[in-house]
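User: My collaborator sent over this chain with a note saying "see what the structure looks like." That's all I know about it. Can you take a look?
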Amino acid sequence: KRTEIKFSTLRSQSDTYKENLVSRFDSEVLAAIRAKSVQPVISEVFDIKDARQAHELLEKDQIVGKIVLSF
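Assistant: Without extra context I'll predict from the sequence alone. Here is the result:
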């Protein structure tokens, strides 16, 4: 259930490397999002006034997906 995020800086990489990376991200990741073949898993949507209830649900640690607060 826990996610691990790893990252690095691209400062030391060449401009060509960075351009290729952005191009691949667009063609592989953003294209999948645009085609809606990749979508987030939303567990529940709460009105902002029910944020306390949403937080309580998060504290139980029994959800799968995201909790969305609607304004």
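A starting point for your reply to your collaborator: Helices lie at 15-34, 51-60.
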